[in-house]
Write a structure and sequence with these properties.
alpha/beta, 8 strands, six-stranded parallel beta sheet, Rossmann fold
Length: 294
């Protein structure tokens, strides 16, 4: 089944719905926004690059005739996160999609005391989602987040929460995704009014995959383009999350080895209940601290 046929058989109109998307100008983000706009959704583009966001918004409006609003947010900066959360609370979106991510980037310590990869991939989105939750309940909203197969690369470490002592980018990134996914499973475990979908796109050739040394990347980028799914197809797992719901320890991703193919809901057995308890407590402590400073 090609992408167009999948869209025809697995989606319905989103006219009258407002969808907020973080990381909207990245490879997956842009493809996702085109799918959403094609389905009639009004869009809130949450991105740190205002120029690219405005350009994308203009293109979407011209092509699909939908309403697009751009909000700047830097997920590494809590002041920016506080500001955009307050803005979202004024008119909550029907669907909040956390798609933004950071993999192999220069390490920096954020104002929260956590490394920027942990901040961008877990701390900031968790704060936004948890703060929006009461408002989303009032409108029967949805939350869709993008996880990663990298969450299975290592277990969390209570003595090194953000993996600041680890060098492997895959483990630092995977740890943050592990916190994001399993903290939200617990947060939504008894939630009836708001639906959560944890999704993942498998591996797609986007900016986040361009983290290899330049010489190596020059050799592998063309095979990667051929081998892995292109963003418009890879983001179908995220789009399915708009229409579906995942329970605790479920996610939606490519059906073949979690890398290729059309979306399928699957069970996860990667985190024990004891570790999930610890993740939940850490998330609660971080949120309480950040809320006091808001």
């Amino acid at each position: 089944m090609n992408t167009a046929n999948w869209l025809k058989h697995n989606t319905t109109t989103l006219a009258g719905k407002t969808v907020a998307v973080t990381g909207s100008t990245g490879g997956l983000g842009q493809a996702l926004c085109h799918h959403l706009a094609g389905l009639g959704a009004a869009l809130l583009l949450l991105d740190r690059n205002s120029e690219r966001s405005q350009a994308l918004g203009k293109a979407l409006t011209e092509q699909y005739g939908v309403s697009v609003r751009c909000l700047r947010v830097d997920l590494a900066d809590m002041a920016s996160v506080y500001a955009v959360t307050d803005e979202l609370l004024l008119t909550p979106p029907d669907i909040f999609i956390h798609n933004a991510g950071a993999y192999s980037i220069p390490k920096e310590l954020c104002s929260t005391g956590y490394g920027n990869v942990f901040q961008i991939n877990f701390v900031s989105p968790y704060y936004i989602i948890r703060t929006l939750l009461p408002a989303l309940r009032a409108i029967g909203g949805r939350v869709v987040v993008v996880g990663s197969i990298a969450h299975n690369y290592s277990k969390t470490d209570p003595n090194d929460i953000d993996f600041s002592t680890r060098r492997a980018a895959s483990k630092v990134y995977g740890n943050a995704k592990r916190y994001l996914m399993f903290s939200l499973y617990r947060l939504f475990a008894k939630e009836d009014a708001v639906r959560l979908s944890v999704t993942h796109p498998g591996i797609s050739f986007t900016g986040i995959t361009a983290h290899y040394p330049k010489v190596i990347f020059a050799l592998i980028k063309h095979p990667m383009k051929v081998t892995f799914m292109k963003p418009p197809r890879a983001c179908l797992s995220i789009l399915r999350g708009v229409y579906d719901q995942t329970r605790e320890n479920e996610w939606i991703g490519p059906r073949i080895f979690n890398v290729w193919g059309l979306p399928k809901k699957m069970k996860l057995r990667t985190v024990s209940p004891v570790e999930a308890d610890a993740i939940e407590k850490t998330a609660q402590d971080i949120y309480t601290t950040l809320s006091r400073k808001a």
